[in-house]
Amino acid sequence: MAEVAPAEVGHGDAHDDHHEESFWSKYVFSTDHKIIGFQYMFTGMAMALIGGYFAYVFRMQLAFPGSSIPFWGTLSPAAYNSLVTNHGTIMIFWVAMPVLIAAMGNFCIPLMIGCDDMVFPRINRLSYQIFLLSAVILIVSFFVPGGGFGGAWTSYPPLSAKAEYNSTPFGAPLWLIAVTLEIVAFLLGGINFITTTMNARAKGMKIYDIPMLVWMIVIASILFMCSVGPLVAGAVMLLFDQTLGTSFFDAAAGGDPVLWQHLFWFFGHPEVYVVLLPAMGIVAEVVCVFARKKLFAYKLILFSSIGLGILSFFVWAHHQFISGVDPRATYLFTTTTLLISIPVAIMLFAFIATLYGGSIRFSTAMLFALAFIAEFLLGGVTGIWLGSSGVDIYLHDTYFVLAHFHYTFVPIAIIAVFAAVYHWFPKMFGRMMNETWGKIHFWGTVISFNGIFIPLFILGSAGQHRRIYNFQNFPDLAGQNMQDMRVFATMCLVLMLAFQVIFIVNFIVSLKRGEKAGRNPWNATTLEWITESPPPHGNFGSTMPEVYRGPYEYSVEGREKDYWPQNEKP
Amino acid sequence: MAHQIIATGRSRTGIPTGRLAVWWIIGSEILIFGGLIATYLLNRFNHGPSWSVEAANTNTFIGACNTFWLLTSSLFVVYAHAASERRDAAKTRMWIWLTILLGGFFMGFKTYEYATEIHHGFTLFTSNFWSFYYTATGLHGFHVLCGMVILAIIAEGDIKKGRNWHRVENIGLYWHFVDIVWIFLFPLMYIAK
Amino acid sequence: MAGHKHPSYLKIYITLVVLFIVSVVGPEVAPAFGAFAKPVVLLTAFGIAIWKAYLVCAYFMHLKVEKIYAPYILLACLSLLFVFFFGTATDAMFANGHNWVKPMDENEKVEEAMARSYVLNKDKHGGGHGDDDHDSEAH
Known about the structure:
The structure holds three protein chains of three kinds. Chain A is mainly alpha-helical. Chain A is built from 15 helices and no strands. Chain A has a single domain (36-530), classed as Cytochrome C Oxidase, Chain A, CATH 1.20.210. Chain B has one domain (17-191): Four Helix Bundle (Hemerythrin (Met), subunit A), CATH 1.20.120.80. Chain B has seven helices and no strands. Chain B has helices at 6-9, 17-46, 48-55, 60-85, 89-119, 128-159, 166-191. The radius of gyration of chain B is 19 Å and the shape is elongated. The termini of chain B are far apart. At the B-C interface, helix 2, helix 3, helix 4, helix 5 and helix 7 of B face helix 1, helix 2, helix 3, helix 4 and helix 5 of C.
């Protein structure tokens, strides 16, 4: 029944070989899930710097139109469009997804379920290589004649299909190829996560003993796999339109541009939950450890997230309320969109209930986790207005939408990621990060984040449209108070970026000179904390762990220690 | 890094890991091909009259032959699977190569078909019907080709050396899926005119 | 997977081939049904396709004896496909909306298609470029 894994004929050693490995085979061409996780994490962080830099440049343009931007120069309208497009694309596909899913998944899943690696290590390596290729192709697209694609991350035709409209005859197809390759990489990675979790769990780990982070990444991978299919088909069609001159999306030739919107958003909406769920998983783990409490209503959270996943396939047209869709369809999509806030709220309130009565310790990771809950709640409630088709007629394509999705995306891709890094850094690298600098980084990041986007909510409600190069060209948007808000938001962005320097320095210095971390510096219960920091090749040595209880047995009545590891014999 | 991974050998669901992965791959491919076919259908319903005229120019005889090749190759690959369960390397390889042969017939007939259609003036850009036709059948043909290559690698790289017998079943599943996609493409493009 | 009971693969194959023949012959005999010609073609083409797909899935892919996860995975993906189709159809299948009309003219397209149609025009050219009812590579 259980098939033997393919025998790998290699160095002639039949046992665990740890003779001298070259730098290349150990770090570059590794099949070890931990190394691949790091590869994804560092690539994602590097791309975040690029995406953040783009945001800095175009926000400087909006705050001081026409001026020469430090570290860029003057920004042309075409370049503005390109920066806006690629900022969005990079942050979603090359930062949020790799760090939350691929890095966290790769590093944490085998450790948390008690096995020695992913079930398909070589496919794992291949998925990273394809991902890296996609990142390279995207960056190349910035330097080709015409520059990078500037048709928004949603890439609607005919703007995205015809070079005569988008002026980026090379950038547009390269962008599309990069996105498609990234999708392929994550399909491969997702299969690894799903089959590993389904099949390779430690002995005794039953369905409800699986840590919430693992569940969330698996559900997110399933969501991704099920939603991306039509988009791949659509991307092939769009690529043919761009390069070969077909007219799949050309209305005059009988094609249908709105079809692209459906193909895109059928994926685009589940995608936001694909990134949300792992972030929720990270918060669940951190909150339990630092409140010393069992996760409140584990099964409810699990079933809510499954329900969320299913429901997420029925809401996509709320991105298209004003594109001319049948109004009767909008009744349906408004209803489902409002309904979908329920599972999300259930999960967030379950986290808050976990805190209640807990013995809370405000480590840096915990601060970020708490900030996630607060900020994401704010972002989520603003989605209620946008999900109602009537109000959306006014708010669509304004900065209100932008502020809404940044209030959800930044907690997901930045705040939760920082929580994860501060929490698992000791396990990953065997050293502790500096808590004081961590806390300074936290306050600087979160306060300035709010300073950026609250003005944008106000500007959006006042009618400020998205994707505009210079608001001084619009008399009713050019008033001094509105411009002042733009400047304020931009200054807060600069401040937020400056605070990230603290994180980078803390990270690098701690790698070498941080206090040595033991196996379990946070006294946590899940399986990754029973092994060495950093875990050796094969994770658990010669005896694989066996599981006897759930993942969050903290502060159990009658026990001396306030935590009861999963693998401890009863 | 060249050692057995314990994780790959575990099977909490009772389905061997490789086969479980193939089911998930097929699931995602259902959505990719399905997305393409759904888009074709949406366009077809919208442009019934003109697409009907265009579709009359597809070659039903060749399409039918190709359906026959794939159906038969499905039989052969399931015989290969049965042989692999008996650990009969010679028979397994024979059935696999027969499957590849029929896949080759499929690709050969398709090549002739494309060539004829292009000769008659129907290219990828002639009209939207033809864009869909070439994209859908081309994507399918690409999957057939990849399947043939992987079948060959398994036959010569694994079965010849008497190992990894489970891979025959897994590639067989993929091959059956490719057959099923064609089972639907055939009526869409060749029969429903 | 150890040996399991299954109907003869050959019998399933023969069933598939018979169904296949019926689906090819369908459009030829459909006119005999008069007004029901179109539904007959659709039934023989797609109804049979579904039946054939079921046979391949159940017997060749052994879904009948597989653990329950596999059919669930496939059914889930299939259902989502239908969600996509019906959700998009309400939008993509109308030629006009409340405030807009699609710019294409179907009749024009039909004329264009008929002009370049090989099948319709080949008799005009007197026989054309060689019979395409050939299997050139069967050996």
